[in-house]
Amino acid sequence: MNNMKKKLHKLWETKTKEDEWWSSFVTAPLAIMVNYFVVDYKWLTPNLITLFSFLVAIIATGFIVVGGITNFIIAAVLIHLSHVLDCMDGQMARYRGISSRSGSYFDKLTDQIQVIIWFGAVGYAAYLQTQNVLPVFLAFAGVSFYSLRGYTKYVAIYTEMNDNKDYLTKKNQEKIDEESGKKENAGLDHGMSANILWFIKEQRKILSFDEGVFIFMLSFALVFNVLTPMLWVFALSQLFYGFYRALQRGYQIHTNKHPQILSVTGK
Q1: Could you give the CA distance from residue 234 to residue 228 in angstroms, rounded to a whole number?
Q2: Which residue of 24, 123, 126, 253 has the fewest C-beta atoms within 10 A of its own C-beta?
Q3: How far apart are CA 260 and CA 163, in angstroms?
Q4: Which ranges in the chain belong to alpha helices (H)?
Q5: What radius of gyration, in Å, describes the C-alpha atoms of the chain?
Q6: 3-class secondary structure, 204
Q7: 267 assigned to some structural domain
Q8: Is residue 264 domain-resident?
Q9: Separation of alpha carbons 161 and 27, rounded Å
Q10: With 60 as the cut, is the pLDDT of residue 105 above it?
């Protein structure tokens, strides 16, 4: 029993503090539960789980394209299964101490592809329902501006690296220092009131409209067959965050490059 408890605690420690909204209290805990039973099978590697997650995502896309409420519900279940597996691979790698750059790369790459094909499939399914091209446009716009969020980040890093070769090292150290300064205020070693308070605070993350929120949005829209309204939310939220991130990154670069000019004009 003591070893089982230690194993569970060690697995819980692999859960990242900055998990996205739905991941934080649904798919990541489910992934820990599944990992508890499979993490010691050496043949089952994190990269293999990443592959399973991606294959399940493709199958879910097929059910969306075929259409029909039954297929939509199956797709919603498969989307959740894919995301549980997506959480599992990182947890398993951290548990075993075998995290790798290539694993992180393929994990992020497949995440991006999944967002594109899921929303693209929903746009197509909504088009078949309405015979209106608007849902396809909304899906395209949402995916485009979601991609812009990531693109501006890497353009900003590239720009900063051209000016300061130690930029990433500095930022990484700042992140490590920030993480080490955070105290765990919820989890297996905390009482119910602390976990309830943590859960309430986590709800703020829904406004980030990132992948963790997308899992819920897609599943809700498929189960209740409200595809076009969900696509409106997706497109508008990504339009806002795409422009916001672009302006934010540009301002940060300008501040780093010309701190004295900004300090003078800001008075």
Answers
A1: 10
A2: 253
A3: 17
A4: 2-12, 21-22, 28-38, 46-66, 69-96, 101-130, 134-163, 167-181, 192-202, 211-223, 227-257, 259-265
A5: 21
A6: helix
A7: no
A8: no
A9: 35
A10: yes
Q: What is the mean pLDDT of residues 236-265?
A: 76
Side-chain half-sphere exposure of 252, counting CA atoms within 13 A: 13
Q: What is the percent of the chain with per-residue pLDDT over 90, rounded to a whole number?
A: 67
Q: How far apart are CA 195 and CA 199, in angstroms?
A: 6
In terms of Cα–Cα distance, which of 82, 111, 95, 110 is closest to 36?
95
Count of the separate structural domains present in the chain: 1
Largest CA distance in the chain: 64
DSSP state of 166: T
Q: Give the span between the Cα atoms of 30 and 82, in whole angstroms.
A: 12
Nearest-angstrom CA–CA distance, 99 and 116:
26
Q: How many Å separate Cα 181 from the centre of its chain?
A: 23
The domain spanning residue 107 has which CATH number? 1.20.120.1760
Burial of 219 (0-12, 13-18, 19+ CB in 10 A): buried
For the whole model, what pTM was predicted?
0.89
Please check whether residue 124 is in contact with residue 85, taking contact to mean a CB–CB distance below 8 angstroms: no
Per the structure, the complete domain to which residue 97 belongs is given by 2-259
**Contact by Cβ (8 Å): 238, 145:** yes
- Secondary structure of residue 20 in the 3-state scheme: coil
Domain assignment of residue 77, yes or no: yes
- Per-residue pLDDT at 201 exceeds 60: yes
Burial of 138 (0-12, 13-18, 19+ CB in 10 A): buried
> 33 lies in a domain?
yes
